[in-house]
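user:
I keep going back and forth on a fold encoding question. Separate attempts, laid side by side, tell us more than any discussion would. Would you put together a sequence-and-structure record for a protein of your own picking? Write it directly below this note and I will take it from there.

assistant:
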Amino acid sequence: MLLKKFSVTNYRSITNATVSLGDFTVLVGKNNEGKSNLLRAIDTSMSIIASINYLKPTRNLYDWERDFPIQHQKRTRGLDSIFRLQFELNEEEKKEFKKKTRLNGNEIIDIVLKIGKTNRPKLSVPKRGSNTYNSKASQITEFISQKININYIPAVRTEDQALDILQRVIRTELRVLAFDQEYTNAINKINDIENKLFKELSDRVSPSLSEFIPNFQSFEITANKSQGYYGPFGRSVDIQIDDGVKTSISYKGDGIKSLATLAILKDRDSKTGASIVAIEEPESHLHSGAIHTLLQVLQGLSEKNQVIITTHNPLFVQQNHIMSNIIVDSGKAKVAKNITEIRNILGILPSDNLSNARYVIVVEGEDDKIALQKILPAKSDLIKSKLVSNQLVIKPLGGVSKLPSELYNLTQNLCKYVVLVDNDKAGLDAKKKAIEKNLLKESQIRIVIATGLRESEFEDCLRIDVYEESIRQEFGISNLQCKEFKNNNKKWSDRMKEVFQTNGVGWSESIESKLKLTVARSIPENISDINGILIPQKSVFLDNFISIIEEMIEK
């Protein structure tokens, strides 16, 4: 079962908002514009539906004086908060729905909640031409409550709130025991049955926690027997985490509490039904290094659950599914149309700042940057215009091993990027790692492949006469027509190393870097004849690379 669409009218700062929800929905917007209240509205309405027939409310779900917009409380009409939820059933659920309610198993079920000054919810199940659905509203909501639940995690996570979240998640896991005949008929076996479930849950969660928490040793759940037995929904638990020091989770930091909660949600048993995981600012209380891990957790959660988050961090924006991002502004919500809208609402503006540039070309070294800044404008008017306006920048890595970390930073800032690396072991290894980390697609990267060379780098595609004189003046090397330089089995820098050593000139990494900068600076500004710079048969890759840059810009 999925919560397919949600609408709310007159709830806190939200006057009227309708959102469509998928597997992973992101709510973005400025502070105090309604993101959190929209998330709370989903939690409130889902919790009320569950409390009507299934669970007694454990908290104050709705209070008119608190939750109805204060600025409208003195008017004479329209004094209800209205929540409308649209649930989508799969084929199996349609059959089960018909069997339990004796109603036709429609694919869509609409639930409407109205709450006024009395704080008593009025529930209806609208269906054209029939009052039967309303008469069986109780059965319908019970069916929904058994099939889908919500786990809401607020942004402000005090110790009590964090523990309450964990307690509620654990109690959700315990729901499955309510339908266990042995459990209901044999109270004396409760501890054994619960401990088995706790052990299974601990075993499921521990592998995820070991990934998220440094020095993780163990995760243990036990029933809090001091509070007595109140049924599977009232039993409280104690949670112990050993991250070098074994203590109750109440003594751990907010980051660990958050990650533990998400790990439990990620590895929950499917028998407990579908789940909506609603999280305010999941990045709160986490250090920057853990945020990427958190994104992976949320993406994993969305495979079996519906995930809805609010965020100010551009990392969480769904760039490949723009319509999964909801912009919340001035108490209203709308589907994002493009990245530009999202950048604007988050305050990310294109500039000459590398981290905020709209488009980025990632290259290995400063020499590649200098060369491409001269060559690309001569090959493409579109690229030239974007370079001039600083919408497109060229970012040198300063070492190809830094490629994954740099792409991660660019992703955080909603930059579009393409990559050019040398055709050697280091370049190919960096490409492989970036792809494995889901930071790069094959369509975003090109390799410097010079025809006739087993390994190659950018200098291999340049004509010798472009830089020959500069090398002579800088390093005293006067003959590049020698056999060492014409060796097609080696890339340009390895051939130059042999030339230098043959001429009795020292060689080191710093000399290699200086040499490459000398070559790049030898390329003239404002190139009039590109054929005088590049070797045609060895620069075919460059035309292909230009095509993917232009495609990136035009998308």
